[in-house]
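Translate sequence into structure tokens.
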Amino acid sequence: MPSEDNMYIFAIDTSTKISSLGVFYGREPVITLYVDRGVVKGENLILLVDYLIGKAGITRQDLNGVVVGIGPGSFTGIRIALSIAKAMAYADNLLIKGVRTMDAIALELQGISSLVSPLLSATSGKYFTALYSVGDDLKCIEDVSLCNLDEWVQMLTQRYRDREIIFILDERRVEDAPILTSSSKLYGVIESKMFPKVEMLVKLFYRYMEKDDLDSPFTLLPMYYRPSAAEEKISK
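Result follows.
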């Protein structure tokens, strides 16, 4: 296995409204791109992948690994990125790691003493969320779930009564900010576009690589926390 310092890694996440892609040499970005997922359709994304690799001055054969966001988030988006990443890993014998959307978003606040709760908008007025300690290292202390905001806040105020919590709130749901700030004087809100940065995906890739905890393209699966609309319709 090559050392981190001379590895080329491709990072991709399309689980949210913003598609995130990039080529990295070690931990340093060579080229990155953030684009509205509605602008770049799934069938064109693989062309964009090849374009970015070419702009980085390398070929796919120069890549050593690929890291991909596996959700939660958009069903279609997760499937697209995961299919591309798994195909790349299989065809070019690349190392591969799937990273949870929430982990990458929370990692952006690493180093603060407060707990961190990303709130990614889901359907039916609910949120995908989790709770992290991000001081010295990223640690998930309340696992990713799909929940009602009032119930989530009530649970946090009971279990973490004396802890400061920073909520990363989807900017499309800013009207929910008062629910958070009125619950406790220890709570703060950061409004965000809510998408994983490729820099965070790559950081997590190397953390998992150091622990010898990478994935296989044959067994890597998306993280879904509810059935799709089609599955719900079939079950009725």
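Note: Helices lie at 42-55, 75-92, 101-107, 149-159, 177-181, 198-210, 229-235.
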